[in-house]
Design brief:
Blueprint lengths: L5 E5 L7 H12 L7 E5 L5 H7 L6 E4 L25 E4 L2 H7 L3 H13 L3 E6 L3 H5 L3 H12 L5 H4 L5 E5 L13 H17 L9 E4 L7 H6 L5 E4 L6 H10 L2
Parallel strand pairs: 1-2, 1-8, 2-3, 3-4, 4-5, 5-6, 6-7, 7-8
Helix pairs in contact: 4-6, 6-8
Bound molecules: 2-phosphoglycolic acid (PGA).
The site of 2-phosphoglycolic acid has 13 residues, from β8.
Protein backbone atom coordinates (compact mmCIF):
# COMPACT_ATOMS: atom_id res chain seq x y z
CA UNK A 1 0.00 0.00 0.00
CA UNK A 2 1.59 3.29 -1.01
CA UNK A 3 0.31 6.16 0.98
CA UNK A 4 1.33 9.79 0.41
CA UNK A 5 4.19 11.19 2.49
CA UNK A 6 3.13 14.43 4.19
CA UNK A 7 5.02 16.99 6.28
CA UNK A 8 2.87 19.73 7.78
CA UNK A 9 4.14 22.68 9.80
CA UNK A 10 1.81 23.64 12.63
CA UNK A 11 2.79 27.23 13.40
CA UNK A 12 0.48 27.40 16.45
CA UNK A 13 0.30 31.01 17.75
CA UNK A 14 3.40 32.06 15.76
CA UNK A 15 5.02 34.06 14.29
CA UNK A 16 4.32 37.35 16.06
CA UNK A 17 3.29 39.40 13.01
CA UNK A 18 1.58 38.95 9.66
CA UNK A 19 4.71 40.21 7.91
CA UNK A 20 6.74 37.39 9.47
CA UNK A 21 4.05 34.87 8.50
CA UNK A 22 4.37 35.96 4.87
CA UNK A 23 8.16 35.62 5.04
CA UNK A 24 7.76 32.10 6.47
CA UNK A 25 5.31 31.22 3.69
CA UNK A 26 7.82 32.36 1.07
CA UNK A 27 10.47 30.23 2.79
CA UNK A 28 8.15 27.25 2.42
CA UNK A 29 7.68 27.89 -1.28
CA UNK A 30 11.44 27.54 -1.56
CA UNK A 31 11.69 24.33 0.52
CA UNK A 32 12.61 21.41 -1.80
CA UNK A 33 9.92 18.76 -1.29
CA UNK A 34 9.69 16.53 -4.34
CA UNK A 35 7.80 13.39 -3.38
CA UNK A 36 6.44 14.90 -0.17
CA UNK A 37 3.15 16.72 0.27
CA UNK A 38 4.06 19.93 2.08
CA UNK A 39 1.65 21.93 4.21
CA UNK A 40 1.54 24.88 6.58
CA UNK A 41 -1.01 25.62 9.28
CA UNK A 42 -0.78 29.31 10.20
CA UNK A 43 -2.96 31.08 12.77
CA UNK A 44 -6.41 31.84 11.30
CA UNK A 45 -5.74 35.59 11.12
CA UNK A 46 -2.76 34.89 8.83
CA UNK A 47 -4.61 32.49 6.50
CA UNK A 48 -5.50 35.07 3.83
CA UNK A 49 -1.98 36.51 3.62
CA UNK A 50 -0.36 33.07 3.63
CA UNK A 51 -2.82 31.78 1.01
CA UNK A 52 -1.85 34.68 -1.25
CA UNK A 53 1.87 34.13 -0.61
CA UNK A 54 1.54 30.45 -1.58
CA UNK A 55 -0.76 30.91 -4.57
CA UNK A 56 0.53 29.00 -7.58
CA UNK A 57 2.69 26.70 -5.44
CA UNK A 58 1.78 23.17 -4.36
CA UNK A 59 2.29 23.97 -0.65
CA UNK A 60 -1.07 23.36 0.99
CA UNK A 61 -2.59 25.67 3.55
CA UNK A 62 -4.36 24.25 6.62
CA UNK A 63 -6.31 25.90 9.40
CA UNK A 64 -5.40 24.85 12.95
CA UNK A 65 -8.98 24.28 14.03
CA UNK A 66 -12.54 24.83 12.88
CA UNK A 67 -15.87 25.19 14.64
CA UNK A 68 -18.48 22.45 14.56
CA UNK A 69 -21.38 24.77 13.75
CA UNK A 70 -22.06 26.21 10.31
CA UNK A 71 -22.49 29.74 11.64
CA UNK A 72 -23.98 31.63 14.55
CA UNK A 73 -23.29 33.12 17.96
CA UNK A 74 -19.81 31.67 18.62
CA UNK A 75 -17.58 34.60 19.48
CA UNK A 76 -13.99 34.20 18.39
CA UNK A 77 -14.57 31.07 16.31
CA UNK A 78 -14.11 30.28 12.62
CA UNK A 79 -16.61 28.26 10.60
CA UNK A 80 -15.40 25.74 8.02
CA UNK A 81 -17.19 27.54 5.18
CA UNK A 82 -15.11 30.66 5.92
CA UNK A 83 -11.97 28.75 4.91
CA UNK A 84 -13.11 28.18 1.34
CA UNK A 85 -10.58 29.62 -1.06
CA UNK A 86 -8.06 30.03 1.78
CA UNK A 87 -7.33 26.55 3.07
CA UNK A 88 -7.03 23.07 1.60
CA UNK A 89 -7.82 21.51 4.95
CA UNK A 90 -7.79 21.85 8.69
CA UNK A 91 -6.29 20.25 11.76
CA UNK A 92 -8.83 19.09 14.35
CA UNK A 93 -8.38 17.52 17.78
CA UNK A 94 -4.96 19.00 18.54
CA UNK A 95 -4.22 18.31 22.20
CA UNK A 96 -3.69 22.02 22.89
CA UNK A 97 -7.20 22.75 21.62
CA UNK A 98 -8.62 19.77 23.51
CA UNK A 99 -6.87 21.15 26.64
CA UNK A 100 -7.71 24.85 26.23
CA UNK A 101 -11.22 24.61 24.78
CA UNK A 102 -12.43 21.45 26.46
CA UNK A 103 -12.87 19.51 23.23
CA UNK A 104 -13.78 15.87 23.80
CA UNK A 105 -13.91 13.09 21.21
CA UNK A 106 -17.51 13.88 20.24
CA UNK A 107 -16.76 17.54 19.67
CA UNK A 108 -13.67 16.75 17.59
CA UNK A 109 -15.84 14.41 15.51
CA UNK A 110 -18.35 17.21 15.00
CA UNK A 111 -15.59 19.60 13.94
CA UNK A 112 -14.25 17.03 11.45
CA UNK A 113 -17.78 16.54 10.08
CA UNK A 114 -18.19 20.30 9.60
CA UNK A 115 -14.82 20.46 7.81
CA UNK A 116 -15.68 17.60 5.45
CA UNK A 117 -19.06 19.18 4.65
CA UNK A 118 -17.20 22.34 3.63
CA UNK A 119 -14.98 20.31 1.28
CA UNK A 120 -11.85 20.47 3.44
CA UNK A 121 -9.29 17.76 4.08
CA UNK A 122 -8.82 16.88 7.75
CA UNK A 123 -5.78 16.08 9.87
CA UNK A 124 -7.26 14.40 12.94
CA UNK A 125 -4.90 14.52 15.96
CA UNK A 126 -4.90 12.03 18.78
CA UNK A 127 -2.53 10.69 21.40
CA UNK A 128 -2.16 9.73 25.03
CA UNK A 129 -0.97 11.74 28.02
CA UNK A 130 2.10 10.79 30.06
CA UNK A 131 -0.09 9.58 32.93
CA UNK A 132 -2.08 7.38 30.56
CA UNK A 133 1.11 5.90 29.07
CA UNK A 134 2.54 5.23 32.55
CA UNK A 135 -0.66 3.44 33.53
CA UNK A 136 -0.34 1.23 30.44
CA UNK A 137 -3.47 2.75 28.87
CA UNK A 138 -1.98 3.97 25.58
CA UNK A 139 -3.70 1.35 23.40
CA UNK A 140 -7.03 1.82 25.14
CA UNK A 141 -6.87 5.61 24.81
CA UNK A 142 -6.01 5.44 21.11
CA UNK A 143 -8.78 2.92 20.50
CA UNK A 144 -11.28 5.15 22.30
CA UNK A 145 -10.20 8.25 20.39
CA UNK A 146 -10.66 6.45 17.08
CA UNK A 147 -13.98 4.88 18.11
CA UNK A 148 -15.58 7.90 19.77
CA UNK A 149 -13.84 10.49 17.57
CA UNK A 150 -13.35 9.23 14.03
CA UNK A 151 -16.06 6.58 14.39
CA UNK A 152 -18.54 9.31 15.29
CA UNK A 153 -17.89 11.49 12.23
CA UNK A 154 -20.97 11.87 10.09
CA UNK A 155 -20.37 9.11 7.50
CA UNK A 156 -22.04 10.99 4.68
CA UNK A 157 -19.67 13.90 5.26
CA UNK A 158 -16.60 11.66 5.60
CA UNK A 159 -17.30 9.86 2.33
CA UNK A 160 -14.61 7.32 1.42
CA UNK A 161 -12.10 8.77 3.93
CA UNK A 162 -9.78 9.79 1.07
CA UNK A 163 -9.59 13.26 2.58
CA UNK A 164 -8.66 12.10 6.10
CA UNK A 165 -5.19 11.84 7.64
CA UNK A 166 -4.35 11.14 11.29
CA UNK A 167 -1.58 12.62 13.40
CA UNK A 168 -0.39 10.50 16.32
CA UNK A 169 0.84 13.09 18.80
CA UNK A 170 1.62 11.76 22.29
CA UNK A 171 0.92 14.73 24.56
CA UNK A 172 4.10 14.15 26.56
CA UNK A 173 6.19 14.60 23.41
CA UNK A 174 4.65 17.87 22.21
CA UNK A 175 6.95 20.84 22.70
CA UNK A 176 8.97 18.99 25.36
CA UNK A 177 12.04 18.06 23.34
CA UNK A 178 11.29 14.47 24.34
CA UNK A 179 10.13 12.81 21.14
CA UNK A 180 8.73 9.28 21.07
CA UNK A 181 10.96 6.64 19.53
CA UNK A 182 10.32 5.37 16.04
CA UNK A 183 9.29 2.05 17.58
CA UNK A 184 6.76 3.73 19.89
CA UNK A 185 5.34 5.66 16.94
CA UNK A 186 5.09 2.50 14.82
CA UNK A 187 3.32 0.61 17.60
CA UNK A 188 0.79 3.41 18.05
CA UNK A 189 0.22 3.74 14.32
CA UNK A 190 -0.42 0.00 13.99
CA UNK A 191 -2.95 0.23 16.83
CA UNK A 192 -4.66 3.17 15.15
CA UNK A 193 -4.86 1.36 11.79
CA UNK A 194 -6.46 -1.71 13.30
CA UNK A 195 -8.99 0.43 15.14
CA UNK A 196 -9.76 2.40 11.96
CA UNK A 197 -10.43 -0.90 10.21
CA UNK A 198 -12.64 -2.00 13.08
CA UNK A 199 -14.65 1.18 12.47
CA UNK A 200 -15.27 0.07 8.88
CA UNK A 201 -12.62 2.34 7.32
CA UNK A 202 -9.65 1.23 5.23
CA UNK A 203 -6.94 1.69 7.86
CA UNK A 204 -4.17 0.76 5.42
CA UNK A 205 -5.13 3.57 3.06
CA UNK A 206 -5.25 6.41 5.61
CA UNK A 207 -1.99 8.36 6.06
CA UNK A 208 -0.82 8.66 9.67
CA UNK A 209 1.75 11.28 10.69
CA UNK A 210 3.83 11.41 13.84
CA UNK A 211 4.02 14.66 15.82
CA UNK A 212 5.84 15.68 18.99
CA UNK A 213 9.32 17.25 19.14
CA UNK A 214 10.25 16.27 15.59
CA UNK A 215 13.60 17.89 14.71
CA UNK A 216 16.12 17.84 11.93
CA UNK A 217 18.09 15.43 14.11
CA UNK A 218 15.40 12.81 14.72
CA UNK A 219 13.23 13.10 11.58
CA UNK A 220 14.95 10.23 9.79
CA UNK A 221 14.01 7.88 12.65
CA UNK A 222 10.33 8.64 11.99
CA UNK A 223 10.79 8.58 8.21
CA UNK A 224 12.09 5.00 8.59
CA UNK A 225 9.51 3.92 11.15
CA UNK A 226 7.09 1.29 9.86
CA UNK A 227 3.68 2.76 9.08
CA UNK A 228 4.60 6.40 9.72
CA UNK A 229 3.76 8.48 6.63
CA UNK A 230 5.01 11.90 7.63
CA UNK A 231 5.26 14.47 10.39
CA UNK A 232 3.22 17.21 11.99
CA UNK A 233 5.88 19.64 13.11
CA UNK A 234 5.43 22.45 15.64
CA UNK A 235 8.46 24.35 16.94
CA UNK A 236 10.86 23.20 14.22
CA UNK A 237 8.47 24.32 11.47
CA UNK A 238 9.36 27.94 12.30
CA UNK A 239 13.03 27.36 11.47
CA UNK A 240 13.76 27.29 7.77
CA UNK A 241 16.88 25.10 7.75
CA UNK A 242 15.61 22.64 10.30
CA UNK A 243 12.23 22.28 8.62
CA UNK A 244 13.98 21.66 5.30
CA UNK A 245 16.02 18.88 6.96
CA UNK A 246 12.81 17.28 8.23
CA UNK A 247 11.21 17.40 4.79
CA UNK A 248 14.38 15.98 3.25
CA UNK A 249 14.22 13.01 5.66
CA UNK A 250 10.79 12.05 4.29
CA UNK A 251 11.69 12.43 0.59
P1 LIG B 1 6.23 20.25 18.50
O1 LIG B 1 4.65 20.32 18.24
O2 LIG B 1 6.85 19.78 17.19
O3 LIG B 1 6.63 21.65 18.85
O4 LIG B 1 6.44 19.27 19.59
C1 LIG B 1 4.00 19.37 17.43
C2 LIG B 1 2.52 19.66 17.39
O5 LIG B 1 1.96 20.05 18.42
O6 LIG B 1 1.87 19.52 16.34
Amino acid sequence: MTRPRLVIGNWKMNPATLEEAVVLAHDRRATPHEGVGLGVAPPSIALPAVAVALRGSDVRVFAQDVHWAEKGAYTGQVAASMLRGLAFGTIVGHSEVRRDQGDDDARVAAKAGAAFRAGLHVIFCLGESLAERKRGETDAVLARQVRDGIGAIDRAALGDAGTLALAYEPIWAIGTGEAATGAQASAAVARLRSELTRQGLDGDAIPILYGGSVTGGNASEFARAEGVDGALVGGASLKQDEFAEIVAAFR
